[in-house]
Write a structure and sequence with these properties.
The chain has helices spanning 17-35, 37-60, 66-82, 84-88, 95-106, 109-112, 115-128. It is an all-alpha fold. Helix 2 runs antiparallel to helix 3. The longest helix has 24 residues, at 37-60.
Amino acid sequence: MRSPRHWGGCWGRRWNRAVHDALHDLFFRPLARRTGLVLAVAAAFIMSGLLHELVFSIPARGGLGLCTLYFMIQLLGVWVDRHPIGCRLGLGRSWRGWLFCAAVVLGPVYLLFHRPLLDNVMYPWMMQVGLI
């Protein structure tokens, strides 16, 4: 597996800069030195899922585990993208790769923005600020 700085598509550092920088500097880099790249990547995705649980699911009082599942699907997407199977399918930096990335990111997005988050946090906030 290549270094994260070489990942293309949506799994690179452009996605969520604040989360990426915090996880990379405080968690990924020290872990990669001790355990190797593959395990550190997997652990960073798990940590990102847990961080999103803390910020999304706990305040929403529901949906616990869905954010982590979403990030496990992202990890699987990165694995397929970087695996020889992904290379044979021509994922790389091609239209197929972008389509695959979009499907993996957007297809299960309801796990990240789950119903309790929408009902208990987002909709009340949107009403409070006059968006709906």
